Amino acid sequence: EVHLVESGGGSVQAGGSLTLSCEASGFPHSAYSLGWFRQVSGKKREGIAAIDRDGLADYADSVEGRFTISKDNTKITWFLKMDNLRPEDTAMYYCAARSVLRLSFLEYEYEYWGQGTQVTVST
Which residues lie across from 68 on neighbouring strands? Predict the structure, then answer.
């Protein structure tokens, strides 16, 4: 059984930084891509960053230039470094994984999900 465990959320002032981590266990796929999503209560879950097994990455316009997705090449662990955080970045953040070697920002294309971690940015 696949499990994704997230860590690293918290509260920070605007302009600050946080790094989220996600570690997968029991992941059986050799071809895969990994993502980060966020969701504000009452709104749709938004894909914000994705990276594939080979390191190709992409970002949503809302975080381009401020967030960086990366991964550990020795295990299925990936990270989201968030710089210059803004109050509008406040959300529940989720990591996700899929057994396809192609980037995606679509929620329904991901098979596995972490439990979510709250990020709160204050003014």
Answer: 81
